[in-house]
Design a protein that fits this description.
16 helices; Beta-lactamase; alpha+beta; binds zinc ion; single chain; 5-stranded mixed sheet
Length: 455
């Protein structure tokens, strides 16, 4: 009797597991079958899939990739091919975040019932239209002048991602031999805008200023004194100038390390952590199924010197370029952050083939009043610094950064900002690795991009 009960329980468990497995597999088959079939390691099929795949267009209907006579061909302009490599993708699917990797099944026209061998008339091959302006990307690439880094620009009202360039890059028509390790090719398959994070240096001062405005009733009038250097908790923090007794607005304008470092110390760890968390640090953004590398605000120690360093974007602070784009975009857009959108439309030959994407919901990063204060401070900063001549004639609000990345290495140059001109509601972020000052290496890239849009 006892044995028979045991057997019944065992049988019941086995049947339950079997049924759970069937349900799980059926679910996976419905959701992920195309991904299984077109996995990159399924090399022969994956390559074939691109030989007869749909087209990829930029926002002006420029063809970026298409298949002709069973061959994948790309834009005729070498510089556009290089500038768009990380967005469009390669044929071996090394760039995992690219369109040709992520949307292989859509481009190929995978059929759920017939799989990859379905007859032509059953294939729902789709074309992908993106918001990117390929000419703008070409300009950004040329202005990056061979340095490694990234340049991004988007419409902060609609979220349309207009420019996304990552370097190093290569011409997909003439891929380099990557078997031999070469420092020049480090990160060649990485879309740095989406999948990397950098020490931000002074562009982070924008975030310290947001924290001050959120937590100090007298933040706008509070002053600190810069004598060129200060010992905080036994650590010497230095500044590029000797700025005297100045407020937050002038602290940003002069990019004063002592003033912004002291603001961070006065604000304390908790306030800095709360503000960075509410601005999306520690979380990925979802850009059409690609998750960005999260930005990091992680104090190495609960000490005043670590706080001061973090307030000026050093210590262990790391910033993802696209994430920073949404922060400056939210300042421009009355505190509301609109998530960047790469894909405009995925459509087939008939309208029922159209695929709709839900854009990630907009988030409020800060109050309207704080966004307005920051906007004014960033306009004042851009107008009263050496970069003003680059942006003459436009209402540009911006902050540069020169991030120290270790002794013996040249710093990363940054700029982040936006145009408050109604006709060009765009925000931008540029990072030029191991180059020099933000104003000298990153600002000209942003200025050339903006200039292209405004002319
Ligand atoms: Zn100073």
């Amino acid at each position: 009797m006892k044995n028979s009960r045991k057997r019944s329980v065992l049988l019941f468990l086995l049947v339950s597991f079997f049924l759970c497995g069937v349900v799980f597999l059926s679910f996976e088959l419905c959701i992920n079958s195309s991904n299984w079939a077109l996995k990159p390691f399924n090399e022969h099929l994956a390559l074939d899939s691109l030989a007869n795949a749909g087209k990829i267009f930029d926002r002006n209907s420029v063809i970026l990739a298409q298949s002709v006579n069973s061959k994948r061909i790309y834009n005729e302009d070498e510089q556009i091919r290089k500038a768009l490599l990380h967005t469009v993708g390669d044929e071996n699917f090394n760039i995992s975040t690219s369109l040709q990797s992520k949307f292989r099944d859509q481009l190929f026209g995978y059929n759920f019932f017939m799989g990859i061998d379905s007859p032509e008339f059953l294939k729902k091959r789709r074309d992908i239209h993106i918001n990117i302006d390929s000419k703008l990307c070409k300009i950004a690439l040329s202005k990056l002048s061979g340095y490694k880094g990234t340049a991004v620009m988007y419409n902060y009202k609609t979220g349309e991602l207009l420019c996304m360039v990552s370097t190093p890059t290569y011409d997909i028509k003439n891929p380099p031999d990557l078997k031999n390790k070469n420092a020049d090719n480090d990160g060649i398959f990485l879309n740095k805008a989406l999948s990397s994070s950098y020490t931000p240096g002074s562009v982070f001062k924008i975030i310290t200023a947001i924290c001050a405005l959120e937590n100090m009733p007298d933040a706008a009038n509070k002053k600190f004194t810069c004598n060129g250097a200060e010992i905080i908790n036994g650590q010497r923090i230095t500044c590029m100038g000797c700025h005297g007794n100045i407020n937050l607005r002038d602290g940003l304008r002069f990019s004063c390390n002592i003033v912004l470092g002291n603001f961070a110390v006065a604000l304390g760890k908790k306030n800095m952590q709360n503000t960075t968390a509410s601005l999306g640090f520690g979380k990925s953004l979802n850009i059409d199924f690609v998750n960005t590398e999260p930005s990091v605000y992680d104090l190495s120690a609960d000490a005043k010197d670590a706080l001061a360093w973090s307030g000026i974007g050093q210590d262990k602070v790391l910033l993802n370029p696209i994430h920073m784009l949404t922060i400056v975009g939210s300042i421009a857009n009355s505190g509301i952050s609109v998530t960047p959108k790469l894909i405009k439309e995925i459509s087939g030959e008939s309208t029922h083939n159209k695929l709709n994407f839900k854009q990630e919901e907009s988030k409020r990063y800060m109050s309207n009043e704080i966004a307005d204060s920051l906007k004014e401070m960033m306009l004042y900063t851009a107008k009263n610094s050496p970069i003003s001549s680059l942006f003459s004639g436009s209402d540009v609000c911006a902050k540069t950064g020169t991030a120290e990345v270790g002794s013996g290495k040249k710093p990363h140059a940054w700029i982040s900002g936006f145009s408050k001109n109604e006709k060009t509601p765009v925000a931008f972020v540029v990072v030029v690795e191991h180059s020099g000052f933000g104003g000298e290496y990153a600002a000209p890239v942003a200025a050339a991009m903006l200039n292209h849009l405004q002319n």
